[in-house]
Design the sequence.
């Protein structure tokens, strides 16, 4: 599963990138959503890679995010059932989960070169692959 975190804000963003962020349920900075690994998700990630960071999230970190920052649509959230359903590929509405996690700014900040450079050059944007777990742990 992909974890997508919006890093940059709304100012000077093109309309197609705004629409993509709406589809990804990322309306503000430091918010995260979880999506299955599909072609459509990968295309959306390519479109927003200059404003967000993403990577493949592990089960342990996803469970921790669900426990601490997960919100149910109605009633209470059953973490074990929701985690199992997400891994199986079920939709979040079927699992009674809002697909947006409001995170805090990361402890000790983003990477050294800031939020306008790609991760491969020492910044914070773009594909982090498995290193997304470290960032999510600092933001929970």
Sequence:
């Amino acid at each position: 599963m992909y974890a997508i975190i919006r890093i940059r804000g709304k100012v000077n963003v093109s309309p197609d990138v705004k629409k993509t962020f709406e589809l990804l349920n990322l309306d503000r900075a430091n918010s995260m959503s979880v999506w299955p690994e599909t072609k459509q998700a990968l295309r959306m990630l390519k479109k927003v890679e200059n404003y967000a960071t993403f990577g493949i999230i592990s089960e342990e970190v996803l469970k921790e995010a669900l426990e601490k920052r997960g919100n149910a649509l109605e009633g209470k959230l059953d973490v074990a059932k929701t985690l199992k359903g997400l891994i199986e590929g079920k939709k979040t509405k079927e699992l009674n989960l809002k697909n947006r996690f409001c995170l805090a700014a990361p402890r000790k900040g983003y990477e050294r070169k800031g939020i306008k450079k790609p991760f491969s050059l020492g910044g914070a944007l773009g594909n982090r692959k498995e290193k997304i777990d470290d960032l999510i742990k600092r933001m929970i």
Notes: Residues 2-139 form a domain with the Ribosomal Protein L30; Chain: A, fold (CATH 3.30.1390.20). The helical segments are 15-23, 39-48, 59-69, 79-88, 132-139.
